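Lab manual, section 2.4: Encoding a predicted structure.

Procedure: take the sequence of the chain (95 residues), apply the prediction step described in section 2.3, and record the output as structure tokens. A sample record is shown.
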Amino acid sequence: FFAATLEPRWQVGAALARTLAALGMYSQAKELFEQLKLWEEMAESLIMLGQRDRAKEIVRSRLADAPAAADAPTMWCMLGDLTKESEHYATAWKV
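Recorded output:
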């Protein structure tokens, strides 16, 4: 009878980070995304902070570490946006 329907800590953290990003607080959101290993959102925060080179590093390392991950197509598209090379979009279709 002491059951509580609390969300897991990582879900609360992700919601907080997304709220911070929506409010334009990208630096704080980036730190939370990094702690939670939400790489796509972290890269987007870096882009908004003007750190495109660091975002490219994150995306490339994520693709090297987990090329068959569920977020791989999105990461390939993000890499295409960052480098402006169209072959990355074709790779996203193949994955």
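Check your result against the sample. Residues 4 and 23 are 30 Å apart (CA to CA).
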